[in-house]
Design a protein that fits this description.
44% of the residues lie in helices and 15% in strands. By secondary structure, the protein is an alpha/beta fold. The C terminus is likely disordered.
Length: 250
């Protein structure tokens, strides 16, 4: 058998071992607002199914995992879809993982390198818009590591820019934060009690009870002994809330 040089093996990364397994298309957007506003990005991610078919997988053997739409990639915690992907890879069911870009899969170095190790051990390949990568191959692994590092750094820069924007608004006195239940913001920007008299009564009663007992736990215990339901009705744009008389749920 003739040994092939690395650049001569570029077209043979997808082999029978991978084709005998599933191709998984992982779809993710960071927030629900992005899902609404960036519909084209979501469509492009679903379009990776056609890429998997072009690489040799039957459409029936392409699995789309999209449970993480609206979830941040900064951590694997809370990402049901990512957990499902890791499980399928660990069980040896996956031959190829496709993402429109590697940052869709993970923006945390710990999660990213764990995914690379699992793919390398199980023989799964990774692919994005730029190419197909074998995490066992040194050069591909180096490139995948660089992509993962850039994804994590990009998240840090995004957070830094958002914080800088908030700080600039705060210095100008224009930073508006969400108000607690029972308060509204006037057109002038000032916070005030809700003009609804029922809402004002409930808010004042809660503060009076706290002043009497001195602790939040005491207030909750006091309310739980009553059968009253304290509701706060308000018009759109105001904070809504209700107190049903129950204690803290943890």
């Amino acid at each position: 058998m003739t040994a092939l040089l690395p650049w001569e093996r570029l077209g043979s990364k997808v082999g029978d071992r991978q084709l005998a397994r599933l191709a998984v298309v992982y779809v993710r957007q960071s927030t629900r607002q992005q899902v609404i506003d960036h519909g084209e990005s979501t469509r492009l991610q679903y379009g990776l199914v056609e890429r998997a078919v072009a690489l040799g997988w039957p459409a029936s053997r392409v699995l789309v995992i999209d449970e993480d739409l609206g979830k941040s990639g900064s951590s694997a915690a809370g990402r049901v879809g990512f957990g499902r992907l890791v499980t399928e890879i660990t069980l040896g069911h996956v031959g190829l993982v496709l993402g429109i870009e590697m940052s869709r899969l993970a923006r945390s170095g710990a999660d990213w390198y764990q995914l690379l190790e699992l793919c390398a051990l199980s023989g799964a390949l990774l692919a994005d818009a730029d190419g197909v990568y074998d995490p066992v191959d040194y050069n591909d692994r180096l490139l995948l590591g660089l992509k993962g590092t850039m994804s994590e750094a990009e998240l840090h820069l995004l957070k830094q820019r958002m914080l800088a924007g908030k700080q600039a608004k705060a210095r100008r006195g224009e930073l508006a934060i969400a108000l607690p239940t029972g308060y509204v913001r006037r057109p002038s920007g000032e916070a005030a009690l809700d003009p609804d008299e029922q809402v004002q009564t409930v808010v004042r009663l809660i503060f009076a009870k706290f002043a009497e007992l001195g602790t939040l736990h005491g207030c909750c215990a006091g309310w739980s002994t009553t059968t009253s339901s304290w509701g706060c009705g308000c018009t759109p744009g105001r904070t809504r809330g209700s107190w049903s008389g129950g204690g803290p749920t943890g």
